[in-house]
Specification:
Layout: H1 2-23, H2 32-35, E1 42-46, H3 48-52, H4 54-63, E2 66-69, H5 75-78, H6 88-99, E3 103-110, H7 130-147, E4 154-159, H8 174-179, H9 182-194, E5 199-204, H10 210-225, E6 232-235, E7 238-240, H11 246-257, E8 262-271, H12 285-305, E9 310-315, H13 348-354
Parallel strand pairs: 1-2, 1-9, 2-3, 3-4, 4-5, 5-6, 6-8, 7-8, 8-9
Helix pairs in contact: 7-9, 10-11, 12-13
Bound molecules: ligand G3I.
Ligand G3I binds next to loops.
Length: 357
């Protein structure tokens, strides 16, 4: 009996050491940021929690050279009441980045989701006027952008303002209902006033879908034509194993670059599911991870081939350990959309992204 116990311990130890040594991979070992140093920065969206976890922290420092706060800088979390700002989580992320010489992308200054109700309503709970709403937007943008001036190099100024409906250019949000399209133009002017050096992004999803791409192009062409200080476009990149095609992605990059704007992929993840009906099935996972590896290799080839327009690629979360796609579009359906598995180990897709000629 004793003999077997001894063998089990050794094995466990061996495993641990292996795991230990894997875990002990030093931050100096080559990571995504190093493989792509001649192309563009590689970033990751983080929560303060991810920075506190020593293993995740080590992986972040090894692989990435840019951070985006996943939620901490959105209007709701950072400005919950008119006279109260909540800087704690946002400061923690910026301080960590400063300490480790990482870039930071600010996300986001104006959005229709995670936006506190107070900004749209007066004390009698009635919708405020355009003038009051724009003044509140100006105060918010000036206060947040000034706090991180020189520490945040780029801002998603307006997020997801273009409609998903083909018969409408702009999303019918409360911002639009109260201000019309002006809230978009003003938001960029306020951000530029607050930090003239910051790179200002319009950020959206579905940017490879031809009809939505043209609506976004129409909006940006009007802004550039009117001298609105928009510098770049964020393709969120919430993709899947079968979408987008390389052709559609190339068309999107060239279409926006033709306006003289830079392009970034700002929220990259590739779902292993093709639709909402797919279920998390262990028999299918190997095949799905193979397809995912092929899709990641395909999109990164496009990013490299068009590096003259691409100024950064950011993943939306660190690993499959924590991803918003576990609750969207199917609540509770585990997804595996990133390059590192739940044990923070590089997946097949990782090697497809870094092994290029
Ligand atoms: O902080 C509260 C917590 O106090 C509360 O106990 C908990 C329970 O409901 O909710 C927590 O807030 C959650 C927040 O994430 C922080 O975890 C919100 O419910 C949840 O809705 C929010 O989800 C975020 C989502 O944006 C909101 O729309 C996701 O984490 C975030 O990944 C996601 O990111 C967006 C980008 O900003 C824009 N593009 C699409 C992308 C995915 O939706």
């Amino acid at each position: 009996m004793a003999k077997y116990k001894f063998i089990i311990v050794i094995t466990a130890l061996g495993l641990f050491t292996a795991a230990g040594s894997a875990m002990a991979q030093s931050v100096t070992e080559k990571g995504l940021k190093d493989y792509y140093k001649d192309y563009f920065p590689i970033g990751v969206a983080v929560s303060p929690g991810a920075l506190k976890d020593s293993a995740e922290q080590r992986l972040i420092l090894q692989q990435f050279n840019s951070l985006t706060p996943e939620n901490a800088m959105k209007m709701g979390p950072i400005h919950p009441q008119e006279n109260r700002y909540n800087w704690k989580d946002a400061d923690a992320i910026v301080d960590f980045a400063q300490a480790h010489h990482l870039r930071v992308r600010g996300h986001n200054l104006c959005w229709h989701t995670q936006t506190p109700d107070w900004i749209f309503r007066d004390k009698d709970d009635k919708l405020v006027s355009k003038e009051i709403l724009l003044q509140r937007l100006k105060d918010h943008i000036h206060t947040v952008v000034n706090r991180y001036k020189g520490k945040i190099y780029a801002w998603d100024v307006v997020n997801e303002a273009v409609s998903d409906n083909n018969d409408q250019l702009l999303r019918n949000s409360l911002w639009y209902q109260i201000c019309g399209e002006d809230f978009i133009f003003k938001a960029f002017q306020y951000a530029h006033e607050a930090d003239p050096k910051a790179v200002l992004f319009y950020n959206d999803y579905g940017t490879e879908q031809p009809a939505k791409r043209e609506r976004i192009y129409q909006l940006l062409k009007k802004m550039v034509g009117a001298g609105i200080p928009v510098n770049a476009v964020g393709l969120q990149g919430h993709w899947s194993v079968n979408d987008p095609s390389q052709e559609n992605l190339i068309t999107t990059i060239k279409r926006f670059a033709s306006l003289g704007l830079k392009v970034q992929i700002t929220e990259l993840d590739i779902s292993v599911y093709q639709n909402d009906k797919d279920i998390d099935d262990s028999d299918l996972i190997t095949e799905r991870l193979q397809k995912q590896a092929e899709q990641y290799a395909k999109v990164f080839k496009v990013f490299r081939d068009y590096k003259q327009y691409i100024t950064g690629v950011t993943f939306w979360n660190v690993s499959d350990r924590h991803t918003w796609l576990d609750n969207f579009p199917v609540r509770g359906r585990k997804n595996y959309p990133l390059l590192f598995d739940q044990n923070l180990q590089p997946k097949k897709a990782y090697w497809g992204v870094v092994n290029f000629k």
